[in-house]
Write a structure and sequence with these properties.
With 125 residues, the protein is mostly helical. The protein has one domain (2-124). Helices cover 82% and strands 0% of the residues. Helix 4 (67-92) packs antiparallel against helix 5 (101-124). The radius of gyration is 15 Å and the shape is globular. The protein starts with a helix and ends with a helix. The model has no long low-confidence stretch (mean pLDDT 92).
Length: 125
């Protein structure tokens, strides 16, 4: 299940990175934000950050026992949880619409599954 969760996460990250890099105004439009040159720039920078996580996460899917793989996956879990908190706070402040809620929930779910497996594997070592 962990490998499938990681593969699904990589797919979502790739789609998100492409959207952020090449279609930032459409990505903002989904959550009800009107884009401008500054917001497009910031989203593209975010897209670079998301894209930079993909190779490490991709390699980590085959062996979660190594300290490097575990560190990469903990970085992914941290990204999923913190980005969900940021998005939820934006929702609470009416910056983004309710269409951001499924993404928040999905990231929390995926991050939780990965974290649970990492804790479980650590306990078995």
């Amino acid at each position: 299940m962990l490998k499938s969760t990681i593969l699904f996460s990589v797919l979502l990250m790739a789609v998100s990175a492409i959207g952020l890099l090449f279609f930032p105004s459409k990505m903002l439009g989904v959550v009800g934000i009107v884009s401008n040159l500054q917001t497009d720039f910031l989203l593209r920078v975010s897209g670079v950050g998301v894209a930079s996580l993909i190779p490490g996460v991709w390699v980590s899917r085959t062996s979660t026992a190594s300290p490097v793989s575990r560190a990469v996956l903990m970085g992914l879990v941290t990204y999923m949880f913190l980005s969900s908190i940021v998005d939820f706070l934006a929702y609470r402040q009416s910056i983004v619409s309710t269409s951001s809620l499924p993404s928040i929930g999905l990231r929390i779910l995926l991050g939780g599954i990965i974290l649970w497996h990492l804790i479980k594997e650590k306990a078995q070592l």
